[in-house]
Amino acid sequence: MLDADPQSLGLSPEGLARIDRTLADLIAAGELAGAVTLVARHGKVAHRSVQGMKDLSSAEPLKFDTIFRIFSMTKAVTAVAMMILREEGLWAPEDLVSKHLPEFEGVKMLDGIAAAPTLLHLLTHTMGLGYGWNPEDPVDAAYLAKGVWGQGSLADMSKAIAACPLGFVPGSQWRYSLGMDLQGAIIETLSGMSLPDFMREKIFKPLGMVDTDFFVPAEKMPRLATLYRMSKTKGLTTSNLPIIARGPEAIPPLPGGGGGLFSTVTDYARFAQMLLNRGELEGVRIISPESVAEMTAQQLSPDLLAGGYGIGLQQIRPGYGQAYNGAVFHDPAAAGSKVGRGTYQWDGAAGTWFWVDWETDLIFVGLIQRMAEEGTPHLQAITQDLIAEALG
Predict the structure, then answer these.
(1) For residue 226, what are the contacts with CB-CB under 8 A and spacing of at least 6?
(2) Distance from CA of residue 351 to its chain's centroid?
(3) CA dihedral in degrees (99, 191, 270, 295; nearest 10)?
(4) What's the pLDDT tens digit per position in 178-206?
(5) Which residues of 109-139 are buried (b: 16+ CB within 10 A; e: fewer)?
(6) Is residue 78 assigned to a domain?
(7) Are residues 65 and 99 in the same domain?
(8) Is residue 346 part of a domain?
(9) Which of 113, 134, 215, 233 is 20 to 30 A removed from 273 (C-alpha atoms)?
(10) Structural domain harbouring 54
């Protein structure tokens, strides 16, 4: 992706500079260690920015090739992997999950009644799964008791999850979950390849994503950004979250399709641009335009859109719904947003974010290294508003 003068792409340099100043202010205030951003329009890079530190203790600055934990931005990559297999006729949204993961045959809900979840439920966080984080929640407590996060493979993880109850009738509620990690088990079953190998061969290598994987090789470890969280008394401190922040040195036993990837701003921009180009980048086609349209279409029922959708920094609001493994603005005006209709987006647990806007022919990728929590600036919404101003 070549750089171009932003004005030639219909973007105001002054407007783009406001994004940099906003992030610089947050860095100066101690809210962020640093930030790397990239804006591309009409297939060309309009703006790149790098500010702040890769590591605060050493004062080592961030660079454009700094490697970040992108956590849940992995989910969109997993959706593309699923669509590759969909084009091969290996699954359909109406398929029962048990067709591909037999251990889910007769899976029961908390009340003991059997359920029949489909892949559409799995792809949209409406299956009734949990994440295994909250011991006070009955579904999560079951995951913890079964050692879901401690399994030795995605296949074993699937079996452990299947032995736990679903939280509700599939399709009746929305709950953030391990659904994308189960998709990883399905990808391995249908392809006969490990999830890392499948993504590497079918997505990363064809797209030239040279620094994206489920681990960081030894020679690249000096480029890995230090991960932080906010302490009320100490400010930004290094983060140690065992369930989430697994060691980067080797591919983990559970290469999470929901949050396991490391990447750079340039790599992820190539992935986002492929989606913007409706499945193709620089003459290499990953999925068809029809697959991109299906993957990024709003899928939730009217009842869920009326108030049962949202997590954390993802706001519950009209006009904003769920596509496969990501969110979509199906009615931006109703959502109070200035992005184009159909914009597809998601973010990550360490504050990373991206969106793909077909109406304005624009992508944005932002990478930071602060674990998202209450009080974290909502950079997705902030930068979307600033980009709208830059577009005039």
Answers:
(1) 33, 54, 55, 56, 57, 238, 369
(2) 11
(3) -20
(4) 999 999 999 999 999 999 999 999 999 99
(5) beeeeebebbbbbbbbbbbbbbbbeeeebeb
(6) no
(7) no
(8) yes
(9) 215
(10) 6-73+194-391
pLDDT in tens, 22-65: 999 999 999 999 999 999 999 999 999 999 999 999 999 999 99
Q: Which of 137, 164, 191 represents a domain boundary (last residue)? A: 191
Q: Are residues 45 and 18 in the same domain?
A: yes
Task: Yes or no: say if 391 and 10 are a contact pair by the CB < 8 Å rule.
Answer: yes
Domain match, 326 and 362 both = yes
> Cβ contacts of residue 25 below 8 Å, gap of 6+?
none
241, 271: one domain: yes
The structural domain count of the chain equals 2
Q: What distance in Å separates the CA atoms of residue 127 and residue 117, rounded to the nearest whole number?
A: 6
Residues 236 and 343 in one domain: yes
Segment 82-118, tens digit of pLDDT: 999 999 999 999 999 999 999 999 999 999 999 999 9
The token pair that represents 343 in the structure block: 């914009």
Same domain, 341 and 199: yes
Query: 148 and 186: one domain?
Result: yes
The reply to whether 1 falls in a domain is no
Rounded to whole angstroms, the Cα distance separating 253 from 151 reads 8
Residues 102 and 172 both lie in one domain: yes
pLDDT tens per residue across span 25-37: 999 999 999 999 9
